[in-house]
Amino acid sequence: MAQRILLINGPNLNLLGTREPQIYGSATLADVVAQAQAQAQQLSVRVDVFQSNHEGAIVDRIHAAAGFVGTTATTTSLAGGDDDEGKIKEEEAAADAVVINPGALTHTSVAIRDALLGTGLPFVEVHVSNVHARETWRGRSYLSDKAEAVICGMGVFGYTAAIEFAARHMKSKEGGPSRL
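The chain above was modelled as a monomer; its predicted structure follows.
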């Protein structure tokens, strides 16, 4: 079975392409997802995508990725579906690593930090803009000191770099990716 990467996007990232394009560029979240899926195929990994504007939903999705059943996480589908659309199926929830752009929750969410640490999932933190070249408070991350890598300021190409990093390092580990 292919290694699985969970790509999480936090608050307001559904607005990519329209929100402050001078900072975040013109690529949309759908563009990011399409690129991630194409890249996954080339790397022989699976990338599952999740976006939420709600901290608790992100925490639930991280828990589900680590196999903790009974979570209430839902997914936002980019295409239409049936009555089960939005529900995470246990067999589809698992992940070996996480690539996360927590958006504004970067600077505030102890809950996301604790979820990542509590599940033991290795993760890469991604930011489209260079958070260190913006307001001082944007440079403070509750995740960076525990991330395997932090990528910022590369635009949406940062996602490509993060997925590549995660995939290569997962494949280099015997017996599964305990760390990237």
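The helical segments are 21-24, 29-43, 55-65, 90-93, 110-119, 157-172.
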